[in-house]
């Protein structure tokens, strides 16, 4: 979460380098990353205060009138103006000719109707002072004339660092916390002095707001103090300007003082109009079903038993604890008595409420991370100090109420071994060095019984994150500077490598790329119906909280994504593409986790099943894989007469064939799609046999061709196997060179094989060749085929 | 007779020189040198000569003539072959720029390319590669990584939950860090591993953010590992992966699973800094969750996005473009 830190505010507590970039670098190096540096509140030069002397209509100008002003030099200046909201005597900002306006315009003495304009009167928006553009900005009547408007308004240019405050640095949500780090790094004392105690600063008669903490688990401390003599009005310009720079809107002196304390000391608090409080007291309790409260943002919010409420003594809800106050007790123009709440709420509960209401405020962001439970007094004192500047008659009443519950954390001490610090940071740190580094940020360091091998570290109450030795090690490293720790390389004796499975996965990719297949990376989430549309069962694990309503199915197949890629490209007139994906699928299971597996999916558009089979052959030969192709086991969603299942033993490891034509129709894909899918969790685990060398024969080979008429129900695979067996060890090569179908052949096709045989130790005789040929014919004939004439 | 031989020889040479193709030359060769050829018939006529000296003389002249004719035939044949080859070369000329066609090789996705380059650099630095499931238990993804159910840092991870097991028990992993825990359980230290993989965040996508993306995580656990070792490893990786003119720095940061924690930034040759990833010393709670005694062993971990490596390398302005599976995108790399 971001925190806007104002340079001048920090400078109250630490002597800063002048260059904001240097400050930003220091902050980043301390773990307070600066996302950006901004300059705000700068004024436009060339714009001065001027008094309106008189206005005059021109008979030929309907939308503009003539305004005569005095810019302090006694010269009557004439300007044309399109706004009519000024009266003679008003002080207005006048942009003199030559002024560069924030919107990029340059003011020129441009004549209208032949009469020149000696400048331009400005609205708030034109000067970047707000959004008001309804008329010219009317300024306070007692201002001097001819002075730069920024000076007249007390505008101060502020440099703002946008900090990314980390979870473990709650104190950096206050300017003092940030300054403390900087002072430590710069070797300066933090020049922050707590405001004089409010309890002693002119105590008025006893007037208390009682406190009853009902749900102590959610509220560790709750304090109240009653102040009277309040006159609600504007804050001084320097406070308004700091609040604005820090990103908060100035409201009135009471609310502004409250916000100022929060931003300075990270001590959120809430002022109530004391006279609106029922029973002059507070009850802190969780909500009840049916209760509701209208918060300051004018929204009625229903609460439940998870919401911590601030109620008045009559049990009426008056605020969402730690998040936002209620409208019923708001500070108004007529408020004269204020009761200030400063409390410590349990962070987790605040966080849950923030999520529940979807309402994150400056206060809740701080309570969520943990504010300083012991910083309450300083916060109240500063509130009184700030408010007294605009309310000189302010009275602090006796009757300060300070209730706490058992859930208020007690001070933490951590045992730290300097030897351990050195072992983790890579350089030795003595007890004294450690103390010198972290003492300036509030950590007390003591040697235990004079033993410098074990230190007792007292954690400041604003650092609730520090509970372990390692937390202190981090603080030491941070203050010492990560850059100063140097670099070294661990001396590993382990060899770096891919695992055999990872090696095989890379080989598989190489084969696929060689086959002309491109890698796609479709989304692993599917929409309702995607699986059914490709003919696959819809049973799947679902995402409970999907990003896009309906995209909640964890895929059980890579096929929908790849087919989508084919269809998408076809719609862009790119067809005949080959895509693969190697990715995980997540079928449901009854185990601890879904049956997640890695799969290969390949889809080739415009190609038929034969292409898929050839790819499988090429891949399996390259990878040293073997699997049984069973065309009687038709995979779901695939072409029933052109597909089959690949199995090893009893387990199915993939499918090969063509996508079902009905699926292609449904997806609007024209032409066929060859498909190959393999379960890589199974296949990549197979350790392939390493190919062993066979001597190539030096003797001549002999070829003979055999053409068979083979019934359609006898797979070519069987003929092939039979020929291989018959040729035995003499077989050098076998090629199916012709497949012939015609109307003359009933339920059969012609298959032509060229067989090459060769012996390793001799030239084969004609008799030997003839014998092999006869053996081949006899074996194939037994399968129901016959030799063609 | 000698004059006769000389005449036959002269005529043969003239005719050979005039032969216009190989067929004619072959016929001529038979005619001149064949059994019934003119020189052969002169050879048979030699039997009718008187003296031995005469026979010897004529025989010598005749042999010379035959050799001369033979070499003339060979020379002419070589000439004719050469001109035939020249002619063929001329005839079959090709314009090699006519053969433009779509690429036939397939390509790895640019994220896979970045993934493999990263793996290769880490392998060179002595790391092994580990993997883990994308659907994870809440325990591996959060609890073992020092994020118990009430830990506020959980809200930094916009988590996808799935309807598997007890409600809230199963998530799509929000980072590759749960693989650290799995590695610690399966491998005794020393551990030098990197863990690339797909991760999921329930975040609205834009030009730099995706709900499904890829990270690589590194884990080193050994005796005496220090924060300086982490800085040195990051520096060595930076130079190996980006180049020797790049550098790195660590800035303090916060992660629940490491302490001290850091962001690491890369310094480009032009001196600007890029935030790359997070890292830190493995938190003692995490080591214990992995079954490792933090008093005996220490370690560091680091992680960063893979998609960004691909995006920056190829100048892709919108990370979503990388996942359209548009062939016009894929073919560019």
Explain what the structure shows.
The complex is a heterodimer of chains A (789) and B (333). Chain A is α+β, with helices and mostly antiparallel strands and 789 residues long. Chain A has 20 helices and 37 strands. Chain A has a 7-stranded mixed sheet, with helices on both faces. In chain A, strands 9, 11, 12, 19, 20 and 21 form a 6-stranded mixed sheet that branches. Chain A is elongated and about 130 Å long. Chain B is rod-shaped and about 130 Å long. Helix content of chain B is 42%, strand content 20%. The model of chain B has no long low-confidence stretch (mean pLDDT 92). In chain B, helix 1 runs parallel beside helix 4. Chain B contains 11 helices and 9 strands. The chains are: A alpha+beta (789), B alpha+beta (333). The interface between A and B is large, with 86 and 83 residues.
